[in-house]
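Entry: rRNA methyltransferase 2, mitochondrial
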Amino acid sequence: MSAAGGTADFFYRESQRLGYVARSALKLIQMQKQHRLITPGAAVLDLGCAPGAWLQVACQNLGPLEKGGVVVGVDVKQKVKVPSAHCDSRVRTVCADVMTLMKQQARAMSPQERGFSVILSDMCPRISGIKTRDEAISCELGMHALSLAIGKIKVKESDYSDTIEKYLSSTEPDPDEDGVLRRGGNLVLKFLENEDVSGFSKFCKVKFKKVSLLRPKATRPSSREIYMVCEGLR
């Protein structure tokens, strides 16, 4: 396949040429072009932010400095260095394990502790090669990001309840009822494609005005990752 056809090498070279620390920047750029998730002055929380490519793209979309806004990156790795290219003083990183991060702690990271207008989760399990295990961990990560965003999840009898109940235990205990995503806010979740993704999608369609599944062009051909783009928290 030629570079123009979108090989992995093409996207790697293109991200390098544009000054991004990883090819994943091009995935968020595509989502931003299609859905305009981040607006000038937004408050953005980036979960699983290493090595910092999404911090770069998020900051670029905050607009000029006088518009304000903030990008907070969280990662379990030793504090992630904010990339020098495409980032300014509005970007900072925090070393924390998202799986044990409480909503109160996340809210404290936001401007005036009012929460975030955009939450991005590019978290993915370290691939073990055991398909069912990797899929389950991927869903647990997605569930925790979702719970952090929208607050305590109450499951009603429906065609998605089995999926949600399966992963609810991974988000407890966090007594805080309220999520850290502001009303009208946007959420991006990454999953490894599996049968439970449709359950998450159905649940999110109740909570958000619009939900789309997207496999960005910069995704490696061998990867099973898919992004759920949720717009407009009800």
